[in-house]
Amino acid sequence: MERLSLELRSQAGILEERRLRKTRTHAKCFTSFNCSLFSQWEAKASYQIATPSNVDSSNFLRLEPSKINGSNSAMPNWNIARSNYNSVLDSFEDEYGGIVINADRLPQDPNTFACALPVSLSYWKRIGKKGVWLKLPLELSDLVPVAVKKGFKYHHAEEAYVMLTYWLPEGPCLLPANASHQVGVGGFVLNDQNQVLVVQEKYCDSAFSGAWKLPTGFIQESEEIFSGAVREVQEETGIDTEFVEVIAFRHAHHLAFEKSDLFFICMLRPLSQEIKIDETEIQAAKWMPFSEFVEQPLIQDDSMFKKIMEICIQRLRKNYCGLTAHPVISKFDGRWSSLYYNVGTNSQDSNCHVS
Amino acid sequence: MERLSLELRSQAGILEERRLRKTRTHAKCFTSFNCSLFSQWEAKASYQIATPSNVDSSNFLRLEPSKINGSNSAMPNWNIARSNYNSVLDSFEDEYGGIVINADRLPQDPNTFACALPVSLSYWKRIGKKGVWLKLPLELSDLVPVAVKKGFKYHHAEEAYVMLTYWLPEGPCLLPANASHQVGVGGFVLNDQNQVLVVQEKYCDSAFSGAWKLPTGFIQESEEIFSGAVREVQEETGIDTEFVEVIAFRHAHHLAFEKSDLFFICMLRPLSQEIKIDETEIQAAKWMPFSEFVEQPLIQDDSMFKKIMEICIQRLRKNYCGLTAHPVISKFDGRWSSLYYNVGTNSQDSNCHVS
């Protein structure tokens, strides 16, 4: 029966399941190297058992297996069983008690969905399931208020979908949290005339207008810190650079959308000299004598910026080692990632020499 | 007139505006120290001008100012003007061309909202606005499909609301992105018998079952890396510790919810010895001889874990300096944040001595 269910599942559904399975496996094994936190996400297989099409011809609803309703016959009497069966939304089961509703098999009609959802929740609760994941693409936004009225809450959203969740058991919800951080980078670029690359931003609080600062920005989706810093400097100033080290990072909270922020100060080596600014964001850019840059009130009157500049000075004197980026591969997922560490003084590839 | 508008605005609306103003200011000035990226978020004031209640008595709709419709009279003729006016949703304007729809003044009725939204969008487009932000709390989920049908897309969501956006101008959307990262921590805890604190997780891929690993987990909302590592170790093993250093960090992509992941390996000093595991997540925990720990195939056969352990060994020999956490305050927002940097060898508070 389970085999039949797999065969009946649409190709799109299978692909989605594979994608989910892949994503969850990565999540499970790699995110913070913690196997349990994302355990809900390991999609195994649908526990739904397909039934003959004359019992339920919709392509999104599945009937509860007869054993759930107390029948132990290998081949239930469909005509009798029918009135006892309830329609349950097609879903994938995860091995730790979660349910992932199959987004490809959802009813389009809000009324049908409104009927199927409480039946499904009741069934999943009865069989001891925990978290329920419901991903609604933009084109199924009509189902959002239905899900909310049945007790679903928002979990996260991307441009094309919103993810909702429902926690079935009594007690606190143990589902993993949404993404919590923005990641920004700043580029410290010094040329061989001891001039630092600085910008004036177009849109800045009047209290800081006229101040010259390092080029900064957010890294893009799936972008590396080292390449994000190089890109931001290139976009804002037109200067090509190569990444040297992460000098320090700052962790702050309750910023945009109440999220936290990690900001990495990166030392970059200039590969070109001619400035060409991005006029949408930047008012002006220039090479500024380093001593003049640090003497600005923006730096001198601010303990954080002052400290960052002290670190940069120590680095320039080779009394400080930052973190270099090293590609690593782990058997956990077989893919490359970046490990940032201080190469120390004994290493061949050391950028600094602490004495 | 603007004064009148401010006075008419509900207390809740004013508080919301203040909250937005505060959040946006922080976002603008601090998130990655980039003033322009979040510039859309600087709520200044509603540009809507209140009109006498006999013209429009609803508490969520505002009329376009007469000058928009070509009347230059200081006191428009309301009876004549009325038929020319269109209802526009109450909103805050930001100084860089964005509109933040006032969530406290939204119509409850989807049909009313469906009428007001296109009128509002048309008006905002006509006056040259760019991004439109629409925050819909759970209780207004009925409005989600209405907004989506008018062209809004999801931006992000938290448990109690979903944020939608609409980009008015021609050309690519320039609104800032959603949070992009999860942040995890791992605790390397060594006692004075050269034993490392290790755990076996309850839910782990069978390929890694039986392996002893460092305690790991995600940091919580607005939690510090240094306190998150201490908390995770305490929760999983019952061992109290104090933070010493971030030894290294790993950056990986396309993990849970397709987000990226930053994982910080933290050295912690044990303050207690007696293990008491968290039975929901952890199968077992123990103090394991360090040499035995690193000899495990999980470490020896994996270039990433092997490298991390090599760094820890260098650190134990004081040939490596990690990053310590330092509270800093910046005039940019007047609040404390944490700056992580290598204290170097010349510092009084150095944890390591590179020679």
TrEMBL record, chains A, B:
<dbReference type="Pfam" id="PF18290">
    <property type="entry name" value="Nudix_hydro"/>
</dbReference>
<dbReference type="GO" id="GO:0035529">
    <property type="term" value="F:NADH pyrophosphatase activity"/>
</dbReference>
<keyword id="KW-0378">Hydrolase</keyword>
<dbReference type="Pfam" id="PF00293">
    <property type="entry name" value="NUDIX"/>
</dbReference>
<dbReference type="InterPro" id="IPR040618">
    <property type="entry name" value="Pre-Nudix"/>
</dbReference>
<feature type="domain" description="Nudix hydrolase">
    <location>
        <begin position="180"/>
        <end position="310"/>
    </location>
</feature>
<protein>
    <submittedName>
        <fullName>Nudix hydrolase 8</fullName>
    </submittedName>
</protein>
<dbReference type="InterPro" id="IPR020084">
    <property type="entry name" value="NUDIX_hydrolase_CS"/>
</dbReference>
<dbReference type="GO" id="GO:0046872">
    <property type="term" value="F:metal ion binding"/>
</dbReference>
<dbReference type="InterPro" id="IPR000086">
    <property type="entry name" value="NUDIX_hydrolase_dom"/>
</dbReference>
<dbReference type="InterPro" id="IPR015797">
    <property type="entry name" value="NUDIX_hydrolase-like_dom_sf"/>
</dbReference>
<dbReference type="GO" id="GO:0051287">
    <property type="term" value="F:NAD binding"/>
</dbReference>
<keyword id="KW-0479">Metal-binding</keyword>
<comment type="similarity">
    <text>Belongs to the Nudix hydrolase family.</text>
</comment>
<dbReference type="InterPro" id="IPR003293">
    <property type="entry name" value="Nudix_hydrolase6-like"/>
</dbReference>
<dbReference type="GO" id="GO:0047631">
    <property type="term" value="F:ADP-ribose diphosphatase activity"/>
</dbReference>
